Amino acid sequence: MHIEAGNTERFARNFKDSRELYIPKVYWDYISKSILVMELIEGIRMDRIDEIRAWDIDPKEIALLGLLGYSFATVLGFWLILSIFRSGKM
To answer: Is this structure's pTM higher than 0.85?
Structure first.
């Protein structure tokens, strides 16, 4: 789980100035080979559309932000792998 924890922190650094996205803190002292421990954050599940609307939040905007974040992470991951491969470290 150390790789996943590192990726989470890298993602958090990339979005540290974002007002729309919050990445939970990773608790490194409690991580093991098969367990990843992160900060518990309060929120509304994405499948509870009526609750999201009750908070005057546009579900389409949430979906778009999720898509953009996922796309960014995918592209970033691709470029990291490509740069490692090109540097001869793979």
So the answer is: no
